[in-house]
Each structure stands twice: as structure tokens, then as C-alpha cells.
Amino acid sequence: MKRSARTISVKRRQRLDIWDIAIRLILIIASLTCLLPFVHVVVKSLSSDAYVVANNVFLWPKGFTLDAYVQILSDKSILQSLYVSILITVLFTVIGMIVTICAAYPLSRKQLKGRIAITMLFMVTLYFTGGIIPEYLLINRLGMLDTIWSLVLPGAFSAFNLLILKTSIQSTVPVSLEESARMDGAGHFRILWSIVLPLTKPILATLSLFYAVGRWNAYQDALFYIKYETMLRPLQLKLYYLVVQASESFQTEMTFVETSSPEVLRAAVVVFATLPIICVYPFIQKYFVRGVMIGSVKE
Prior knowledge:
Structural class: mainly alpha
CATH topology of the largest domain: MetI-like fold
Largest sheet: none
Strand content: under 5%
Number of domains: 2
Distance between the termini: 40 Å
Radius of gyration: 26 Å
Shape: globular
């Protein structure tokens, strides 16, 4: 009996070891599929034009050179565009989080009458939008064309983030805690500032990351709304014009770009625009992991 029990336990361990190895291999392969494309882009940006044109660059730079990055930084307006992008991203994230918090907290409380109908109205905007032309006409009518607010206010609220925060508050902040605070004389703003916000810090960091990354990577609205004020062009739009210059070889904004391969410049542009987010992400990664897990386990 003892031997049979030992053999069964050994077989179970072997099965577990096999499954552990298989799961780890799957995770490694999935990680490589996400990492290798970015590594390839970085390597391409550090390689010479001849090797890139000949498709001889894979995971190690050939003919190491920093000409593409020198070419990007040689444009004096790049730093101005970087400053504009940082300013827009900060304003967009702060305003978006303030509006989202102020909307999610009352909708999560049962005392608000008609909260289900109001939530449904927000959900409708996830499926139906006015479109680009009505939005452009609205921005033009409000006089926000060629202003920084045309890149901040129109998209500074996300109904999707509102629903996430609303669900998080309902599952994280118990009603009994709010009732005890009310018995001590706390009002809505006091409860929101001292109880709700500290308890929902992980999801707040997660939504802040969503807002910041979404604004940082966007350039289509700037392409529509910023026409004449070139000093207000964000970094992504500036780099877009830089790539267009290299690929079509014509003069834009009085700056002529000379390059033999637009692919190298395009790769350097991707790396240059991605680095700020990569530098910020490690500091909020722990909150991001905790935030995305909120509400996944029901008690």
C-alpha cells in the first residue's frame, strides 16, 4: 500500500512537472512574440541604411549608427513638440480622471435616483458616436481650432473607464463604511477624499495609465485640429511629418530631411516616441497589476 501510494504521488508530480514546463514554454513563447518585434525595431533604428534596405537586419544591429536619432534631434522643433505632448498628456490625464471620479462615485451609490438610466446613457456612447465631421464642426464652432484645448477637452472622458471605476468602487468600498463615516459627520466630498480614493488607488493608477497612453499615442485629432499653429503640434504628429518627409522626399516646415532609407527613420521614430511611456510604466506597474484584478474574484 505504501509503495502504491508513493508511485501515485510520483506520477502526480511528474504530471504536474510536465504541465508546469508546458505552461512556462507557452508563456515564454507569448512573451517573445511581444518582445521580439520591438527589439527588431530598435535594432533596425541602430543599423545602417544599406543593411536595412537589403533586409539583412534581424535581432542584432549591422553597421551600427545613430544617424537616425541625430536626424530626429537635429530638428529644433522636436523638443518643442515633446514639451507640447507632455503638457497635453498631463492635462488630458488630470482632467479625465477628475471627471471620471466625479461621475463614477455618485453612480456607484444607491442613494442617487435614476443612476441606472444615467449609466445606460453613458453606455450608449460606447456603441454610437457622432463621427469625425460633426466633431470637427463642433470644435470649429467652439473656437478651439489651433488651440491646445482641441487636443485635451474632446476626449478627456471615457465612458469605458467610468464603468470600470464605478464597478471598482461598488466592489471595494462597502456601504457600511460609508454609513459609519456619515454617522461621524462626514459629507460626500470627505468620504470621497478620505475613503474612496485611498481604497481605489490601484484602479485609479490603472485608469490614469489608460488615459496617458491613449493621449500620448494619438495624433489623428492633432492632424485635423492643428493646421497653422505649428508650435502646438505634439510629438507624434511632428514625427509623422518627419516620416512623410523621408518617404516622399519633399520639403515640409522649411526642414529638408535627407535619408537613403525611410525604414530606418521610421524605426527610430517609433523608439523615440515609445521611450517616455516605457520609462514611466515601471513606477506604476504594481498598481496596474492590482487594478486589473479588481472585481475578478467574487466573494
